[in-house]
Design a protein that fits this description.
Layout: H1 13-20, H2 27-31, H3 35-42, H4 46-60, H5 67-76, E1 82-83, H6 88-93, E2 98-99, H7 114-126, E3 137-142, H8 149-159, H9 167-175, E4 177-181, H10 185-193, H11 195-202, E5 204-210, H12 212-219, H13 227-249
Parallel strand pairs: 3-4, 3-5
Antiparallel strand pairs: 1-2
Helix pairs in contact: 7-8, 10-13
InterPro entries: HHH_XRCC3_RAD51B, P-loop_NTPase, Rad51_C, RAD51B, RecA_ATP-bd
Family: Belongs to the RecA family. RAD51 subfamily.
Keywords: ATP-binding, DNA damage, DNA recombination, DNA repair, DNA-binding, Nucleotide-binding, Nucleus
């Protein structure tokens, strides 16, 4: 929750812009500063800064809920808790599909079809809820330049020929999938940190990163001293933000 943007903490636009000039854009950035540092960057009094701290803390603190409320929310509409893979055996193992509100990691040896599966899930997320989809957009972060628009259209047409029965519907589906090619750990992390506003403005219902392992392997040789710590830090920061986004917007990642 600390990854929440300050704009969503109901601070004034003027204050958010002022903080942004000091590279303070999230609740975590704000809460990591001392009172004196906050007084300096905001230009406000000790008393006003204390009120700001309370406001930001409340904005990013998870709301209390009972175990019963969590169970009830999922039992009222079980389909909204998962994005079905349309593969019966896999959905059965996953108890309904890829869960909304949490992270799912897909691992396998190279060449087993992970990218094809991700492309298929992109199509499924754009489908209407009545067809088991999420009726939303997709953010697809491609770190290996492996995404194929032609394959996307082919999968959509072959799997759902009745629904995608016109070029217009296929065109509409492709416009709902937003592709970002990020080839370094730094650019991947920067993109992840900026996703919150994209999720809201583009009505995103699914986030895919294909794949984290690719950029990590290229940049971190764990045999070298210090690389293991840097690698762990990168993975922890990225996972923390993605977990927040999944939970905050109840979407599968």
């Amino acid at each position: 929750m600390a990854a929440k943007k300050l704009r969503r903490a109901r601070l004034s636009q003027e204050l958010c812009e002022r903080l942004s000039r000091h590279h303070i854009t999230t609740c975590q950035d704000f809460l990591c500063l001392s009172l004196l540092e906050l007084m300096k960057v905001t230009g406000q009094s000790y008393y006003d800064v204390q009120k700001l701290l309370c406001k930001v803390s409340q904005a990013c603190a998870p709301k209390m809920q009972t175990a019963y409320e969590m169970k009830l929310r999922k039992s009222v509409n079980p389909s909204s808790a998962f994005l079905s893979t349309t593969l019966h055996s896999l959905d059965k193992v996953l108890h309904g599909g890829v869960p909304c509100g949490s992270l799912t990691e897909i691992t396998s040896p190279p060449g087993c079809g992970k990218t094809q599966f991700c492309i298929m899930m992109s199509v499924l997320a754009t489908l209407p809820v009545s067809m088991g989809g999420l009726d939303g957009a997709v953010i697809y972060i491609d770190t290996e330049s492996a995404f194929s628009a032609e394959r996307l259209i082919e999968i959509a047409g072959n799997r759902f020929p009745t629904y995608f029965d016109s070029d217009e519907k296929l065109f509409c589906m492709t416009r709902s999938i937003h592709l970002y090619r990020e080839l370094t750990c730094g650019s991947v992390l920067k993109r992840i940190m900026s996703l919150e506003e994209d999720i809201i403005s583009k009505k995103v219902k699914l986030i895919i990163i294909d794949s984290v392992a690719s950029v990590v392997r290229k940049e971190f040789d764990t045999k070298l001293q210090g690389n293991l710590a840097e690698r762990s830090n990168f993975l922890a920061r990225g996972a923390s933000v993605l977990k927040y986004l999944a939970e905050e917007f109840s979407i599968p990642v």
